[in-house]
Amino acid sequence: MPVFAPDRWAPLLPWTVWVYFSLWVYICLPSTLIESKGLLKQYFRGAFWMAAIGIAIFIVFPTSTPQWTADWAGYPGTLTFMKDAELSRNACPSLHVSFALFTALWLDWLLRRIRATAPWRWGNALWAAAIIVTTLTTKQHVFIDVVFGVLLGGAIFAVNMYWVWRDQRLA
């Protein structure tokens, strides 16, 4: 994948791996605010299609991140584990970014529905932004992966909201 200025600006910050991993808690949060099976089904439907489309892209157009000059042995633990375990052909789009944005948009929609105060909505946006930034600070992705991850997550959310609107209109 090509390297752009944001890729050079983003330092390797090993401690951000914990924020990166927090995605797996974050994506569960919308399900705690969803009050109906139909809405929960739509959330899972969007997540399924996002993953399926991402994996299809990986198969048809395999991409990998550059070989960074970092000495990964100098970062024992989770960062080394990630580098050892990563599949080298699934960089673009970043599904971490797609799921972070998809979750943030769903959570914002749900928080507005329950009239949550601004700090909750800002906290949601900041958590998603932090996860997205860590895809660069852990060197798991490059900027173009982030861009396409945002496009995938945003597009799936838009289609997902159409499905929600359609289902509510037909009910």
UniProtKB/TrEMBL annotation:
Domain Phosphatidic acid phosphatase type 2/haloperoxidase, residue spans: 74-167
Protein's recorded name: Phosphatidic acid phosphatase type 2/haloperoxidase domain-containing protein
Endpoints of the signal sequence: none
Protein source organism: Cerasicoccus arenae
Ranges annotated as spanning the membrane: 12-34, 46-64, 93-111, 118-136, 142-165
InterPro entries: PAP2/HPO
Keywords from the named record: Membrane, Transmembrane, Transmembrane helix
